[in-house]
Amino acid sequence: MTMSRSNIIFFILPFLSAFLLISSSKAAEQNFSSPEKLVTLKNGGTSSCGFIAKQDGKTYVFTSLHAIGMGGSTILKKDGKPVKTTQVEIASDRDIVRFSIDDQTMPAFDFGDILKMDEPCTVVTTSLNPEKNVTDMKISSGPVAGVGSAFFNIASSEKNPYMLAGSPVISKDGKVLGVVSADIPSLMKVPMAVKDVKVGKKQKQKPKSKSAPEFNYSIDWGGTVCTRISNDTKWISVKPQELTATARTLSDSRNFINGYLPVLSVWLLNPYAQINAGDDTLPDIRPWLDEHNKKTENNAKYISNIREDANHFQEQARQMQDSARSDGVRFSAFSSSRSTAIRNSKLSPYMEFYSSEMAKMFDEICQIISARYSTLSYIYPDDLVTNDSKN
Amino acid sequence: MLKKLILFMILSSCANPGILFGGNFEAARDSLVVIETETGCRSGILMKMDDGVFVLTSQNIFKDRLISIKTLSGKALKPVSFEAVSDEQNGLLRIKTDSTEAGKVLFDDGKKTDGEVSIFKTSPRFGIISELKGSMQKDGLKLSPAEKNKPAPAFIETIIGSPIISKSGKLLGVVGEKGIPMTQYRWIEIKTDLFGRKNMAFPVKTGQSWVKLDSKQMAIQCSMISDAEVFLPGFAKIAEQWCQNPYKPIDMTVDQPEKMKAWIQASNGTIKDIPAIIEKIKDGSGKMGDSMKNVSISELKDQARPIGKRLCDFCPFYQRNLTSSSNKWESPYLKKKAADLSEVYKAAYEGICKEFENSIEGKQPL
């Protein structure tokens, strides 16, 4: 079978075109030639990103509240030298922090004024590499996928957009369209049959009884939410220490939930069972975990006794129910104290809004725990673990 | 060859992932507004009409205080007055604003209503508008699946109030909701149909007549209806579970209505001693065990009966509230919706009253 010349060209053309499209987008990513306009925020071993840009003829360092939470407010240039700042301001209705700087000659971005749907954009992030003591640069890209009056979305393939917080969103012509912010995390139901639960790196457990919840929970960290730059933004002057402390509360709460949720998942399945903690268990909940395991170490024996002679061990069953309930009350206190702490973050209307929305997730966790330990009062401990065989 | 090349170029441009998000967005951009209330953000559309410039949206989105109406350029619009269309099947709301200019979107001429449409939904927290695809069909609005090989959603809460714009860029209507069965009110239908809320289109047509309304009263009334709508599925689920076996504990979950928590505790409390009673019966000698069993059964039944009555009593509260003569409904749509919902509660009451007696008599606690 022979192919005509035109057919061969027509066959090759799509591949050639696809190659050109891919290589042009890669080139756009790699052609970022202004790393000196980026800064790194450093706090001990953690770091985040910011950038230098001009607004109203003046040069500032811009970043996000979430980037301050991760990286603090010590600002370093590409060469590792610190940037001297004079004043810190936060935008009232959106997630931007700007630092006034002494050196007005630093290379700076300009802001773009029009944000269009589908517009391809690039996000450039810097972070400190503590092993090599150098700054790493990471570039990702994606089109604008949603537009609002103060915020916008980009369809980035980044799995953890939170790590991009504070980075500039740059248009094709090299202007800054916005600053990467952070979405508000929310609880997500995961059907038990699909997902195993894990604590630390050791334990895996599947649902055992019909009295156990049908769902487990995980966190939906959301998409890549970015803040728009506006000339009529109202700026609020804040103290750097106060800003860092408040932003860190939010950041710590995100880290906390990562360690708390796996323990919660195991406890929800069977509050009478031991929880096999891994080495990476949160230090905050370690005392609770130790006490829980101490209280429940003989539960398997007690449950076996109750199963043998429920009438005789009625009091034992009651004690186990009470103990599991008080365990649940103390376990939910971690979540409620987080909720109270972040609700006090009120440096700006944006921060107040973000904190109250994030606190709702902690409140929901409290309700989930409370619903579980309330149900325990009406279910015998052996019912909880043997319902499968009974039904 | 040239024809093929041109065809290929067209196809290549369509393959650009940007078109997935874009579509009609840029054409509608100047007309889109973000409406922020205390419960979050929703969309609306700014349109020039004969008697002013109005934001068109759905009455359903106002369950509490209006905070702001903003265009995508960040301009705040001041609401001057609120009006509802005088049609009991249409929950359209128009808000007169202080603006003198609207965007480029025009009203549809009403000749052809089927075909592909764009729906502009708003993220409730950040007020970010993005575009969803759907189609207008003879039986109403159909949403497209979010991903390939996934079923199309029948209902998305966050698109209520969003404008529906045709492929040619004309406004067809705004998204509303159809949440209660309109024709069947028997308990069996309530149990099965209520969980299937659907989005529907509230059509925008020229020559519709409008009635002014008080926005605060409308928000109170919408909140009352929403409260009744939200309560019903949770209530029906618990009622069904209890009627299947009044002597089985009901697991407490977060999504259960708060108003029912005390009732669940009372119901669970009556049966918490069942395992111990069973053991006592086993312990007793034959005759003693039987008589103790009979006494315990009748005691448990007597305890369950008032709990069943209390379960039924949740319904008349909503039934009467929704049709109370003290309600001066702000729009025909809200009045009709409240009356329909009240009928559903009435049917639920009658259905559960019959079912709970059968359950107590039919099920043996021990």
Any overview of this molecule?
The complex is a heterodimer of chains A (391) and B (366). Chain A has 391 residues and is an alpha+beta fold. Chain A folds into two domains: 146 residues, Thrombin, subunit H; 187 residues, no CATH class. Chain A contains eight helices and 17 strands. In chain A, helix 2 packs across helix 3. The radius of gyration of chain A is 26 Å and the shape is elongated. Chain B has 366 residues and is of the alpha+beta class. Chain B has two domains: 193 residues, Thrombin, subunit H (Beta Barrel), CATH 2.40.10; 140 residues, no CATH class. Chain B has ten helices and 14 strands. Chain B has a seven-stranded antiparallel sheet with strand order 4-1-2-3-6-5-14. In chain B, strands 7, 8, 9, 10, 11, 12 and 13 form a seven-stranded mixed sheet that branches. In chain B, strand 8 and strand 9 form a beta hairpin. In chain B, helix 5 packs parallel to helix 10, helix 7 packs antiparallel against helix 8 and helix 8 packs antiparallel against helix 10. The radius of gyration of chain B is 27 Å and the shape is elongated. The termini of chain B are far apart. About 4% of the residues of chain B have low confidence. Chains A and B meet through helix 1, strand 8, strand 9 and helix 7 of A and helix 1, helix 2, strand 9, helix 6 and helix 7 of B.
